[in-house]
Amino acid sequence: MLQLRPSCECCDKALPPESAEALICTFECTFCLSCAIKLQSICPNCGGELVKRPIRPKNKLGKYPASIER
Questions:
Q1: What residues of the chain score a pLDDT lower than 70?
Q2: What pLDDT is recorded for position 43?
Q3: Which residue spans within 12-70 are E strands per DSSP?
Q4: To 5 degrees, how large is the angle CA 25–CA 36–CA 5?
Q5: How far is CA 3 from the centre of its chain?
Q6: Secondary structure of residue 35 in the 3-state scheme
Q7: What is residue 30's three-state secondary structure?
Q8: What does the pLDDT read at residue 69?
């Protein structure tokens, strides 16, 4: 289950679960679209590709909430 981290690791921009601007790598490092573009869609932590984070359906957020870990 994806953690859906709440913010960009670079600039700390809020990335709520419904955000279409969140990108992640295979280790779930999370970046906003602006920072991902600056990073050329490569995770600075692991070197993996940054891809669009899926949006969890609202009816599942109650049972499977997004992470609050920044």
A1: none
A2: 98
A3: 22-24, 30-32, 51-52
A4: 50
A5: 9
A6: helix
A7: strand
A8: 81
Q: Is 41 left (phi over 0), alpha (psi -120 to 50) or beta?
A: left
Cα–Cα distance between 39 and 49 in angstroms, integer? 10
Contact by Cβ (8 Å): 43, 50 = yes
Q: How far apart are CA 44 and CA 68, in angstroms?
A: 22
Report CA dihedral (44, 50, 23, 55) to the nearest 10 degrees: -140
CA–CA separation, 24 and 30 (whole Å): 5
Cβ count within 10 A of residue 40: 7
